[in-house]
Amino acid sequence: MENHYIFMKEAIKEAKKSFNESGIPIGAILVRNSKIIGRGHNKLLQNSSTILHGEMDCIENSGRLEGKDYQNSTLYTTLSPCEMCSGMIILYKIPKVVMGENETLKGPEDYLTKNGVELINLDLEECKELMREYIRDNGEIWDREIERVTL
């Protein structure tokens, strides 16, 4: 469990990068054999992107890995994965996701677990506070982004 906190700190660094770029503070890293093989952060606003969530950016930045690499990896993300990112996790058969929190936004966690993904929620105040600060200061932007993914 100790390693989860060490790797989550790296995902938080990615979230803070996005925050410092006036983006949504969500970060992710991909770890295999206790080594970081990919990192990324939410770039929806910075790149005017429709898909560059933190998890998607992380997997993109990991390069074209072999299937066994994904299947022996853990994805660390500061926020519960949304439907799109959950689909990617299942597509690449990533067996474990460690999230910083799921209070700000709770993705389809049941969908992940029903597809064999182990979920660990560290429930970190640091992740919650980073999102709270962003939402407090950028409520209209957050509402527009959430409107795209919720009904």
Describe the fold and architecture.
With 151 residues, the protein is an alpha/beta fold. The chain is 47% helix and 17% strand. The chain is built from 7 helices and 5 strands, in the order αββααβαβαβαα. The chain has helices at residues 2-20, 54-61, 67-71, 83-91, 109-114, 125-137, 139-149; strands at residues 27-32, 35-41, 73-77, 96-99, 118-121. The protein has a 5-stranded mixed beta sheet with strand order 2-1-3-4-5. Strand 3, helix 4 (83-91) and strand 4 (96-99) form a beta-alpha-beta unit. The radius of gyration is 14 Å and the shape is globular. The N and C termini lie far apart (36 Å). The mean pLDDT is 94.
**Physical arrangement of strands within the biggest beta sheet:** 2-1-3-4-5
Q: Indicate the mean pLDDT.
A: 94
Strand content: 15-25%
* Order of helical and strand elements: HEEHHEHEHEHH
Rg, nearest Å: 14 Å
Write a concise synopsis of the structure shown:
The chain is α/β, with parallel strands linked by helices. The protein has helices at 2-20, 54-61, 67-71, 83-91, 109-114, 125-137, 139-149; strands at residues 27-32, 35-41, 73-77, 96-99, 118-121.
